[in-house]
Amino acid sequence: MKNFMMIFVGKEYTDLGLSPEDMQGRMEKWFAWGSKMEKAGILRGGEALTPQIRRVTGENRTVTDLTSAEVKEIVGGYYLVEAKDFDEVQKIAEDFPDYDLGNTVEIREIMVFDK
Amino acid sequence: MNDKLVDHLFRHHSGKMVSVLTRIFGLKHLDIIEDAVQDTFIKASISWRKEIPKHPEAWLTKAAKNRVLDIFRALSTQKKYQSSIKTGTDAIAINELFLDSEIEDAQLRMIFTACHPKLDPRDRISFALKTVSGFSIKEISTALLTKEETIKKRLSRARKAIQTSDIKFHIPKGKALQQRLESVMEVLYLIFNEGFHSNTKAHLVREDLCGEAMRLCQLLLRHGHTRIPEAYALFALMCFHSARLEAKIGVNNEILDLKQQDRSLWHFPLVELGNTMMNKAVKTDTFSCYHYEAAIAAEHLRARSFEDTDWQKILQWYKALHNLQPMPIHLLTMAVICMQIKDYERSERFFQQINPEDLEQRRYLYNAAKSDFYAETNKQKSALKHLEIALANVNNTSERDYLQKKYTELLSKA
User: Fold this and answer.
1) Contact (CB, 8 A) for A34 and B94
2) By the CB < 8 Å criterion, does A47 face chain B?
3) How many cross-chain Cβ pairs, A to B, lie less than 8 Å apart?
């Protein structure tokens, strides 16, 4: 078994101007998804990120403070899951509720050096 | 699953859910949160009528999670609320809060909130029973032998204190933690005693009170920063007392004293657990009241019969307890202990140190003990006189019956 990270990239609900009803429906799906993984015993953790961004870039270390509304997409958070391979995680990621908003799930394997 | 079990499950779950939701939305919105949790249970009891889910706890947790969104919506319509939920991934953070370890953390925060110094000490117990333990107002009033109206007032006063002093939903640190822990342990001790000494005939309520106090005390012991020797001593004390809980009630629902109890009914696994806890509790240089009270309770349990009781040892623990926390009731107890070992001179000295007025509503205990003292030293007239005073001041019916019986016996001898 390996550990994978599902990284969620896209637009924030509030930036898209979603109605409270729509948000509620989506949150329900997020909760259901989390519970499903928990029940399956594959969930190893996860974290959500706040929408403030401080970007430091370049040799001059140029600092820019941004909000989610000012960027095309933002990393919203990640889930850590245990799975056999990428295919299995891809199957898990099918339940991601926000594909229709143009949002993305990026699957990455956690590196281990003790092989 | 019968109704009683469902009730129990709801109550148990309510405290957890209210605590977790408070972590998400803050103490400011406690009213809305409690309503929402209540609503979840109403929905559950309707849908469970057809079929009870295989994992009712998981069902309730899921329902509470979905409640997050209802609360969120209810609050969004109030302009003053700044929503913290902005996107789907927030569900990840909220989801984490519903993990068992985080639920415990939330409950611990709620206990510490209930015991905040800004809350009136009398309001703390009611508030803790409501928000941490999920008791209804009616159950609290039965448990504390107090009118429902009074409980309502206490709860709203507690809520008001939380709002006006803008109490934060967290566990204090450093010196503040030590002080608040003392207040937490006192509340748990009082909740337990309400259950153990209460005269309410509702057995279930009594057991629930003791059980809740023990559960919450265990919560303290499971967390590094609240795991202190005093808490171990308090838990040991609760174990020792609960071991006798069943033996305390006679066939006619009357309360039996130590002398009358059938010692074979004592629950020994609890005694053993208490001993284990006590071993951890004594790993300190300074003993608390809970240490001494637990030592006294343990001493009673050690005696195979009432006559076997090592009264000298118990007297010694009481002296230590009284040194630490001088109280007229301890003096009275020591006077009675000296009567057990027929040291009437010493007993009299303890009696002399008591001002009966200080005992307030327990004054009748002084007169009842004094009556015993005179009866045993062959002063029947004085014995009768004191028993009359005791009878005139006792409120509790079963205790009145007990004293009345004694009075009749005394009269026949006189």
Assistant:
1) no
2) yes
3) 78
**H or E segment to which residue A67 belongs:** none
User: Chain-centre distance of CA B65, in angstroms?
Assistant: 30
DSSP states along B143-203: HTT--HHHHHHHHHHHHHHHHHTT--SS---HHHHHHHHHHHHHHHHHHHHHHHH---S-H
Burial B155-169 (b: 16+ CB within 10 A, else e): bebbbebbeeeebeb
Tens-digit pLDDT profile for residues B202-240: 666 678 889 999 999 999 999 988 999 999 999 999 999
Question: What integer best gives the mean pLDDT of chain B?
Answer: 88
How far is residue B24 from each of residues A35, B21, B96, B98, B130, measured CA to CA in Å?
A: 18, 5, 11, 11, 19
Q: Does A20 touch chain B (CB under 8 A)?
A: yes
Could you give the C-alpha distances from B391 to A1, B333, B374, in angstroms and in order? 75, 19, 16
> Would you call A46 helix, strand, or coil by DSSP?
strand
* Chain B CA closest to residue A9: B89
Residue type, B276: T
Listed range (A17-21, B265-269, B297-301) with the worst mean pLDDT: A17-21
